[in-house]
Amino acid sequence: MSQQCDIGLIGLAVMGENLALNIESRGFSIAVFNRTTEKVDDLIAGRAKGKKFVGCHSLEELVGSLKSPRKIMMMVKAGKPVDELIDSLLPLLSKGDILIDGGNSFFADTERRTKYVEEKGLLYSGTGVSGGEEGALLGPSMMPGGSEPAWPHLKPIFQAISAKVGPHNDIPCCEWVGPRGAGHYVKMVHNGIEYGDMQLICEAYFLMKEALGLSNNELYEVFSKWNRGELDSYLIEITRDIFSVRDDQGDGYLVDKVVDRAGAKGTGKWMSQHALDLGVPSTLVTEAVFARSLSDVKEARVRASKTLKGPSSKYSGDRQAFIEQIRHALYASKICSYAQGFVQLQAAAKELQWPLNLGNCALLWRGGCIIRAVFLDRIKEAFDADPNLENLLLAPYFTAAVDKAQDAWRHVVSSAALLGLPTPAFSAALAYYDGYRRDRLPANLLQSQRDYFGAHTFERIDKPGVFHADWLRLRKAPQA
What is the protein's quaternary organization (predicted)? Predict the structure, then answer.
């Protein structure tokens, strides 16, 4: 087959198919392949009919249909399938061709694959793609990383198909992130923050439903109002809409018929695990992951509910005032969640020697992705003003915002505890804020314990050096 297509794509599940249609709609020709070739035929005869598509029934046919340097986007399941596909493609490709992994791969795998593919004389890009089915079709957020010489070849396509923001809707939510696994790492942190955002919203909902008894109509109005202010975001918007959906298989609202068991694909867990490896306190995403784990033991919770007792969950104070306090608590907690995410990005960039531009990362998430929000403009402004900003909480806007919200935030967290309603993400965010703002924590006692039983040594506040004490010998009875 003569070389004719601008790019190839392998993997025609929902994301792959919609991304292919997006690419073609921006003026590019595309060759597609799927292991189950019936999917190729169905696409060519259906949604792609009459468009600049070439349907391929083999990898050889796909490779032969592409312009040089060949650009092939792999939209397959993360893990072993990516490695197997790479090994199948390498013998068919030439020096300078580009392989792109657009799936949710673990960043360490992308680090390894980039090195492996580059050693074969080819280029590799691990590209995070966010936005779900709708974003893939209409404009996702894209986070490309990997072999930097690949970027000039990918940029015209990726920036054309990505979401756009700005006063003139002309700033693409796609920019080069960094080498090797940087793109997939930024996507992983995006997904971790997404876990946190969703858990925070669910806690706000649970407080209003259980403590205040708000109806779905009332919840719709609350979230509609919130979406017109500083909480304006995609997740608040879709939450609002969920409360308006009636059950088409019975009476009432659909959300009330959904089992309270949340699934997960693992990217939030990856962020939490690597936070532990780096030694950074990404506590909110970790609590969000554990909240999903607790939801998964539904049968055990039902059994426990018949035995374990707690206080009434009804709030007796001013209803409207408490709703406003919940809004403040949600915003302050959200700020802490993003602050933790960007601290982890900074730590990973240092550890892995990636020259990340944190302001650009915020811009990448401004449109197309699940965590898109007006709020991200403020983060971009903060890092533009100070590229070395140590923590978002120290940026003047966010310092003032949290200070304004904290009385309400503390009231909500304490009220939830007294009412017996779990708010692990709200509570983790507040604990992080209170820990970060203190110049002294009880870790002096913890390190003393470690030195006592394990001779792990300690530093002193009054002189330099590393010390060990014979705590047993030095101990004496307390003074009366």
Answer: Homodimer.
Gap between the Cα atoms of 136 and 162, Å rounded: 8
Q: Phi-psi region for residue 169, left (φ > 0), alpha (ψ -120 to 50) or beta?
A: left
Give the SS3 label for residue 49. Answer: coil
Task: Looking at the structure, tell me whether residues 238 and 136 fall in a common domain.
Answer: no
Binding-site residues for NADP(+): 11-16, 34-36, 76-78, 104
First-to-last CA distance in the chain? 94
Q: Which among 17, 175, 194, 203 is annotated as catalytic? A: 194
Whether residues 168 and 267 fall in one domain: no
- The DSSP result for 257-314, as a single string, is GS-S-----SHHHHHHHHHHHHT---HHHHHHHHHHHHHH-HHHHHHHHTT-------
User: Do 120 and 235 sit in the same domain of this protein?
Assistant: no
- Give the count of domains, the chain: 2
Closest by Cα among 227, 175, 230 to 377: 230
The answer to whether residue 479 is domain-embedded is no
Amino acid residing at 141? S
Let me know the angle formed at the C-alpha of 161 by 356 and 140, rounded to the nearest 5 degrees.
60
Classify residue 478: in a domain, yes or no: no
* pLDDT for residue 1: 42
Rounded average pLDDT over 285-296 = 96
In a domain, 67, yes or no: yes
Q: Residues annotated in the binding site for substrate, as ranges?
A: 104, 130-132, 190-191, 195, 265, 292, 450, 456
- As a whole number of angstroms, the distance between CA 191 and CA 466 comes to 40
Two tokens, residue 302: 């039902």
Q: Exposure of 60 by Cβ count < 10 A (0-12 exposed, 13-18 middle, 19+ buried)?
A: middle
Least Cα distance to 319 among 200, 199, 209 occurs for 209
pLDDT digits (tens, 9 = 90+) for 93-109: 999 999 999 999 999 99
- Structural domain includes residue 2: no
Binding site members: 11-16, 34-36, 76-78, 104, 130-132, 190-191, 195, 265, 292, 450, 456
Structure confidence at residue 477 (pLDDT): 62
For 329-359, write each residue's pLDDT tens digit: 999 999 999 999 999 999 999 999 999 999 9
* Selected catalytic residue, list 187, 209, 269, 380: 187
C-beta separation of 40 from 55 below 8 A: yes
Higher per-residue pLDDT: 368 or 325: 325
CB-based contact 371:334 (threshold 8 Å):
no
Instruction: Calculate Rg over the CA atoms of the chain.
Output: 26
Distance CA 299, CA 372 (A): 35
pLDDT at residue 479 is higher than 70: no
Q: Please say if 187 is a catalytic residue.
A: yes
Residue 330 belongs to what domain range? 187-437
